[in-house]
Amino acid sequence: MRLATWNVNSLRARMPRVDEWLLDVQPDVVCMQETKLAEDAFPTEHFAEMGYESVHHGQGQWNGVAILSKVGLVNPVRNFADGQPLDAEARLVTATCGGIRVSSVYVPNGRELDNDHYQYKLAWMKRLIDHLNADTSSSDAVIVTGDYNIAPEDIDVYNPADFIGATHVSEAERQVLRDLESWGMVDVFRQHHPDDKLFSWWDYRAGGFNQNKGMRIDLIMATSSVAAKSRWTIVDRQARKGEKPSDHAPVLVDIDV
DNA sequence: ATGGTCGTTGCACGA
User: Fold this and answer.
1) Which nucleotides of B are covered by protein (CB under 7 A)?
2) Which residues of A are annotated as catalytic?
3) Footprint of strand B on the protein (CB under 7 A)
């Protein structure tokens, strides 16, 4: 099974690149973030014609997450499943694909450390664990992948000195990611590439991609049973090049099934 | 050099 995560930064703006990429890469499961589409504006029929079942959790101009699957898509759940009042923003969707419980996540950005949005981000990550406890178990085959807006370690940013006092690298953010690992999740890319400094996002501004000023914030987190069956993982930098790219590159993993 | 671009929407804001 080939699974990918990609923050497309507006599916409407990205459709030509998404179509081209699906045909080229032939993923079985795709987790998308920032579709920026209303619930009903998702091109369900178009993806069906390309062989994908899909589920979308959208809200309109911001956020929006989706899962595409060629290996079945059952028991979809939009939003958190922990029984608490629903998140007002469309940042989480879950479905079982090919026997794996898959979630597509768009973790809040955080903006600045003293911004209310940063507290929302930390609370959101804590709540993700409540969701997992309600929806599944760490002994199951589970993947939670998407734009975490957290660089797990200093190796995951181009120049750690430039990020002092910034979000994405703060100790509290890294701690909630470690809490997810304590729950039972493995960072699949880092497992296969312990020393590689490879990024998944580069700012559109100031030639960020050409200068490789990026961060690795798009993560494939998997329970140990899935991680053990993962064979190969890459960042698809090709998708960040060319006409009208997203500011994120897809991250791929191939899993033995 | 505290900028820069792109996406939304609508002439500002989020990333």
Assistant:
1) 3-9, 14-15
2) 106, 147
3) A 9-10, 12-14, 36, 60-62, 108-109, 111, 117, 204-206, 244
Distance between CA atoms of A75 and A95, rounded to whole angstroms?
A: 6
Average pLDDT score, chain A: 97
Quickly give A13 CA vs B7 C1' distance in Å: 8
At which residue do the structure tokens 């664990």 appear?
Answer: A129
Question: Can you read off the two tokens belonging to residue A102?
Answer: 């898959």
Query: Which residue is nearest nucleotide B2, judged by alpha carbon to C1' distance?
Result: A162
What's residue A257's pLDDT?
87
Q: Specify the number of domains making up chain A.
A: 1
The answer to whether the beta carbons of residues A192 and A232 sit under 8 Å apart is yes
A77 vs A111: CA distance, rounded Å: 28
> Over the stretch A121-132, which tens digit does the pLDDT of each residue have?
999 999 999 999
- Contact assessment for residue A230 and residue A3, using Cβ atoms and an 8 Å cutoff: no
Residues 6+ apart with CB under 8 A from A177: A125, A148, A150, A152
**Segments forming the whole domain that contains residue A57:** 2-255
A60: which nucleotide lies closest, measuring CA to C1'? B8
A213 conformational bin, left if phi > 0, alpha if psi -120 to 50, beta if neither = beta
Q: What is the mean pLDDT of residues A20-26?
A: 98
User: What's A199's domain CATH number?
Assistant: 3.60.10.10
